[in-house]
Amino acid sequence: MKLLITILFFFTLVATITDVKAETNTVSSTVVTNSTPPTANAPTIMNNNSDICKLGIGASVQNNVLGLASGYVVTDEFCETLRASRAMYQYGMKVAAVALLCQDPRVWDSMLDAGTPCPAEGLIGTEAANYWKENPSKIPVGSKFRDDYTIVVKDETQQGDFDALKNFGLMALTLFLIL
Question: pLDDT for 8-28, tens place per residue?
Answer without folding.
Answer: 566 665 555 554 454 565 666
